Amino acid sequence: MATSMEVPEPQPNRTVGIALSRSLVALASVGFLTSSLLLLKVVPIFGGLFKGLGVQLPFATRVLVTGNGWIAALFVGGAVVLPIATEFLIPALRRRLIVSGSALAVSSVSAGLMVFVLYLPLFELIRKLEQTK
């Protein structure tokens, strides 16, 4: 019979799950920080390019170019809050893995989505050039 002074040994599957969850959170945080860096450094360059060309931007590109500061702040906030939330606020391992995996998916998709949104005006220009042929 176990006394109250004995510490139960961690289960191997739980230990692996916790390590996986922490790894996913670390990768998601790096992805969020990379996306915020992309927003703060690259998007203003594209904004200046589009302004110099004097083209009408699609709505998504306009939102990205004009709101890149607060969107980057949201990504940095996500990179800071995610590890704290998963470590202290989500005790169930299965939920922690779901949140961590979802955050990694969001951080991975966000960078590609930003690049796509920045290329939308070029796609529109190509479409207009093909219509004039």
How would you characterize this protein structure?
The chain is mainly alpha-helical and 133 residues long. The chain contains five helices and no strands. The protein starts with 11 loop residues before the first helix and ends with a helix. The model has no long low-confidence stretch (mean pLDDT 88).
Summarize the structure.
The chain has 133 residues and is mostly helical. The protein is built from 5 helices and no strands.
Radius of gyration: 22 Å
Count of discrete alpha- or pi-helical segments spanning 4 or more residues = 5
The run of helices and strands is HHHHH
- Quote the average pLDDT: 88
- The domain tally reads 1
Strand content: under 5%
Can you count the beta strands? Answer: 0
**Cα separation of the termini:** 86 Å
Q: Can you summarize the main beta sheet?
A: none
| Large-scale geometry | elongated
Proportion of helical residues: over 70%
Structural class: mainly alpha
Unreliable runs: none
